[in-house]
Specification:
With 557 residues, the chain is α/β, with parallel strands linked by helices. Strands 1, 2, 3, 4, 5, 6, 14, 15, 16, 17, 18 and 19 form a twelve-stranded mixed β-sheet that branches. A four-stranded mixed β-sheet has the order 20-22-23-21. A three-stranded antiparallel β-sheet has the order 7-12-13, covered by helices on one side.
Amino acid sequence: MYKSDIEIAQECVMKPITEIAATANVDERYIEQYGKYKAKIDLALLNETDRKDGKLVLVTAITPTPAGEGKTTTTIGLADGLKRIGKNVTVALREPSLGPVFGVKGGAAGGGYAQVVPMEDINLHFTGDFHAIGAANNLLAAMLDNHIQQGNALGIDVRKITWKRCVDMNDRQLRNVVDGLGGKVNGVPREDGFDITVASEIMAVLCLSNSITDLKERLSRIIVGYTYDDKPVTCGELKAAGAMTALLKDALKPNLVQTLEGTPAFVHGGPFANIAHGCNSVMATKLALKMGDYAITEAGFGADLGAEKFLDIKCRMAGLTPDAVVVVATVRALKMHGGLAKTELGNEDLVALEKGIPNLLRHVSNIKNVYKLPCVVAVNRFPTDTDSEIDFIIEKCRELGVNTVLSTVWAEGGKGGEALAKEVVRLCEEEKGDFTFAYELEGSIEQKIEAVVKKVYGGNGISILPAAKKQIERLAELGFANCPVCMAKTQYSFSDDPTKLGAPTDFTVTIKNVKISAGAGFIVVLTGDIMTMPGLPKVPAAEKIDVDENGKISGLF
């Protein structure tokens, strides 16, 4: 009988979080419990442990399609598989955003028999991190507008305010608003807008911070707007950083939960990879590395987005070097990249697979040849996949010198991830990477953008609109030319056009807007029609979610 993700999760007999902490080599004095099955970990543990770092394994994927790839599910199943073959392993994942949970995409707790639990808590309010991030973001917005209302000593031009308010919900109505209406006592009228919380720079700052001191310094550097003579105004000048840090001090501590099979999982932070850097927090990754001999983490969407940012931004800033990379694919998704309709994916179609497989091969080649890291392809097997289709993928990947392993973790949990676990161990122990970034920081902003487009996306180059050209020139004048670039791009294509599936060639990427996230320490480059506040679909997932008189939730996937 088919069981939904939530039914499988609710059947799990969870271990007390103190037991999971012991498995993760975390002493009880560092645990702050949030009930029986969730805990925050004191940041002092990182400084006080004498454990050596384990191996770091990144799980990424092909370009997403509606057919699904199962990246988070694979990450969890791989960790459980490593545990089953006797390895000391931890997981580091992002927290889900409420917007997609109630919208169309769903949560981020895995699926089938490869999930982190308590699934309902993780997908809903969890330990309150996102609420703290939203509160800090909106405190800064309130202090900014209050400064203008109270005399505007800094000379902030209300037409040049870049800081937005945020809410952790898909709400297109809030993308563009006019506020401060109702007369002098109710503020200064101006155009404003909301981002979804995961797109807030506060989220990126929290995820890239190494300590409370680092967090406060990063918050101080955030640019909220510009003066009448075009000088940047920072959070530090508004004297907001201390209060914001007070709101975020507990949110900075990584959360500890467990997989269905009792593997420790640090779930912390959650920026989207199409509009932000798409990785869990540096603190969670470093804890996972310290507490396990193998730390398995994932980065959002395809390798052109999440993995590129994990490698070029997060690893660079945090001094991390991955030991191996897993690229997740499905036969179904590759056939969609080959032009097959979603309704026809159950039929064997080697022609569509041959047309679609270049997408996988480009991602694999990027990991192996651009970033020079050991790599394995994990194929999530569906019952409709034929041996001929699987053999075709294995042969094509072998031509690149990369092994392919079948994964059945959705249906079998850790048992279905044992073969992948053994190949990951082999890569970590036998193959040495020569980790290289896609670009160096010393180049111009344009050169860095072009390097990502040419080397990672496979495009011909970039076309910079006049407004973006001016923004680039101004950022260089302000001294930000040496920052890494964070590309905001559709997740559905290597290009900036979501309809170009597979591995498109002969395209240019149009750069529409370039802005600095000075606290996070990167330049955000907006391409295509990317939005920082999603909307709900015609039939939102929220319509199916309910709770009974005993408090038991249903319909949550």
